[in-house]
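Hi all, posting the design record for the shared folder.

TITLE: backbone redesign
STEP: 1 of 1
STRUCTURE INPUT:
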């Protein structure tokens, strides 16, 4: 694992993934895998902890699975959001009182 701290890169589906192990500034938080993806501006991800038994192939597989799931979640339509004072599913505006009808 010591040589894995230097990191590695791989290409998948036309994107370059650059991976490395980093330790947070907190002393007992452990090491985490961080990665960046070409085409993702100013984004980096830390999806899982670094383990002593990690291999480049295993980390690659986990990162690809994580990133593909992220892309699926991003593509989903956004759900309805809670709004203060409204019951979920209630119309956004109150309807006018019913107008009396006349019969001829």
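Okay, here is what came back for every position:
SEQUENCE:
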């Amino acid at each position: 694992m010591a040589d894995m701290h230097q990191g590695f890169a791989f290409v998948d589906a036309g994107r370059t993934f650059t991976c490395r192990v980093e330790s947070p500034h907190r002393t007992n938080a452990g090491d985490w895998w961080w990665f960046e993806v070409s085409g993702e501006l100013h984004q980096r991800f830390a999806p899982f902890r670094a383990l002593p038994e990690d291999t480049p192939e295993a980390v690659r597989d986990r990162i690809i699975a994580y990133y593909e799931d992220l892309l699926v979640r991003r593509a989903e339509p956004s759900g309805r959001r809670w709004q203060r004072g409204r019951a979920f599913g209630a119309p956004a505006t109150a309807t006018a009182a019913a107008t009396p009808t006349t019969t001829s």
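COMMENT: Residues 56-75 form the longest helix (20 residues).
Let me know if anyone wants the other runs.
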